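Run Thiol-disulfide isomerase/thioredoxin through structure prediction, thanks.
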Amino acid sequence: MVGIYNRRIFVVVVLVCLVICSPLQVWAGSSSHSSSTPLVSLAGIEKTLADYKGKKVVVHFFATWCHPCQEEMPYIVSFSNQLKENGAVFVPIHLTKMDSDLGQLQSFLTHYEADFDPWLDEKGEMMQQYHVVGIPTTLFIDENGVVEQRMNGMLPQHEAESYIESIKKKS
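Sure, done. The structure for Thiol-disulfide isomerase/thioredoxin is below.
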């Protein structure tokens, strides 16, 4: 009886990992607009995505316990710096509703030498609004607040590099 229960748990865990870790790419289209839902950052600053209308924005959902998030974080830190250098905005959203230890979040950021100030999704509002079912998830939002592209799972480096090149050409 215990063996059957353990196998079922194993199958569920494997399926969840496949959903979270798969690099499925979905194009969002013009019906997805940036949010005016206010969130408070780790530094205590209230922010909304609507504040960045007129700028290219990359939103990245993550949690400290997420292994793919940990694996890609060194690259995400570099990517966030490249975005800033090229006039785009990087918005890291920490899924605080599912990962509430802010001390652990600060340690995580220090470990990866991340100098960004993550927004805290304490109620899961942004997660729900953007239908985030697995992490990491990355959204590419245009100057009009429209989600142009969505990456479920780890952000492939070639996609990030291609995005950087596309915003360099427009500058």
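The chain has one domain: 2-170.
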